[in-house]
Design brief:
There is one protein chain. Strand 10 and strand 11 form a beta hairpin. The protein is of the alpha+beta class and 299 residues long. The termini are far apart. It folds into three domains: 52 residues; 130 residues, no CATH class; 96 residues, Endonuclease, Chain A, CATH 3.40.960.
C-alpha cells in the first residue's frame, strides 16, 4: 500500500537522501511526487532523481543523488572525495567518473570526468562510492593551488590515509595528473620522513648539509609518562629542533609548546624552534644558529 504525499516529503526531509523517480513512485505514487515538487519541498536534483529542497545544497545529499543517477557505478573523485575523508571544506562542485550512458548533466554542481582507468572506490555516507584515499588525494591535488595541494598531501599522510607507496601507485595509474612533478616531489619528501610543507622546506634548504647528518627525524621521547614527537633530535647533545607552522602562532598552541619544552628540559633536552618566516626568509641564518647551538652543547 502506497503512502500519502505528506509522508513522502517527511521521509525526504528526515533522511537527507535522494531517490530515483522509479523508487519514489514505487513507494508512494507519481501523483504524490508531483504534489511534493509543486509544493517546493522536493526538487529534482539530477535527471530522474529527487531529494528534499531542505537538503539540496548539502554535499551528502548531492552525493546520494549522484549515486542514484549513476545507478551506483559512478565514483566521486577530486576535492569532493577528500572532503568525505575530512581533509577539505565542502566544494561547490562534485566531480564523478562517468557511468555508461550518463552524459554531462545540465547541473552546475556536477562535473563528469571521463577517465581511461577505473578508480578504486569505497562506500561512504549516503551510500555513495568515493575514491580510495590515495586516488582521492591525487585527483584533488591538481584542483588546488600549490600550497593547498601540499597541505592536503601532508594532512592525508599524517592521518595515515596515504603513504609514499600508495600515492605513487595512484599517480602512476592516472596518466594526466595535474602538477605531477610537484606531487612526485612531495611523495619523495614523505618517503624520506617529512610530515609538513615547512619541514620539507627546512630539510631541503637548512638541514640538508653534512653537519646535520646526525639528526634523527620524527623521534619519540617519553618524559614523566608523556610521549613527545620531535621534528628533529640530536641525541649526542640532547637538542630538539622544531619547525613551527602557522598553527603554533595560536595562543593556546603556544602555551602547549611552552609546557612541552619545559617538560623536555627536565630531562636535559633543550628545544630550538624555527618559524615559517625564519625558514623561508633566512635559511642561512637558521643554519648558522642551529650549528652554533649544537656546537655549544658539545657536537
Amino acid at each position: 500500500m502506497r503512502s500519502p504525499s505528506g509522508s513522502l516529503t517527511a521521509w525526504f526531509e528526515r533522511s537527507a537522501a535522494a531517490l530515483p523517480r522509479a523508487e519514489v513512485e514505487r513507494r508512494w505514487s507519481r501523483t504524490a511526487l508531483r504534489g511534493a515538487v509543486r509544493s517546493g519541498r522536493v526538487e529534482r536534483m539530477l535527471p530522474g532523481v529527487y531529494a528534499a529542497s531542505l537538503h539540496a545544497h548539502a554535499v551528502q545529499t548531492r552525493a546520494s543523488a549522484i549515486h542514484a543517477w549513476t545507478k551506483g557505478r559512478g565514483v566521486i573523485i577530486g576535492s569532493a572525495a577528500v572532503h568525505f575523508y575530512g581533509l577539505v571544506a565542502p566544494p561547490a562542485t562534485l566531480k564523478v567518473t562517468a557511468a555508461p550512458g550518463r552524459p554531462q548533466p545540465t547541473c552546475p554542481w556536477v562535473q563528469v570526468a571521463r577517465l581511461s582507468v577505473e578508480i578504486p572506490a569505497v562506500g561512504l555516507g549516503a551510500g555513495c562510492r568515493v575514491a580510495t584515499p590515495a586516488y582521492a588525494v591525487v585527483t584533488a591535488f591538481g584542483e588546488l593551488d600549490p600550497q593547498a595541494g601540499a597541505d592536503l598531501v601532508y594532512a592525508a599522510a599524517r592521518r595515515g590515509l596515504v603513504d609514499a607507496h600508495t600515492l605513487g601507485a595512484a599517480a602512476g595509474a592516472l596518466p594526466r595528473v595535474r602538477g605531477r612533478r610537484r606531487l612526485q616531489s612531495l611523495t619523495a619528501a614523505i618517503a624520506a620522513g617529512s610530515e609538513s610543507a615547512l619541514e620539507t622546506v627546512g630539510l631541503r634548504t637548512v638541514f640538508h648539509t653534512r653537519e646535520f647528518s646526525d639528526l634523527i627525524r620524527q623521534h619519540w621521547v617519553s618524559v614523566a609518562g608523556q610521549n613527545f614527537r620531535l621534528d628533529m633530535f640530536h641525541a649526542a647533545t640532547l637538542t630538539a629542533i622544531e619547525l613551527d607552522g602557522g598553527t603554533h602562532a595560536d595562543p593556546e598552541q603556544r602555551q602547549r609548546d611552552i609546557a612541552r619544552d619545559a617538560m623536555l628540559a627536565t630531562r636535559g633536552i633543550i628545544t630550538l624552534r624555527f618559524s615559517w618566516r625564519q625558514i623561508m626568509r633566512d635559511p642561512e641564518g637558521c643554519r648558522r644558529l642551529a650549528l652554533e647551538v649544537l656546537r655549544s652543547r658539545g657536537a
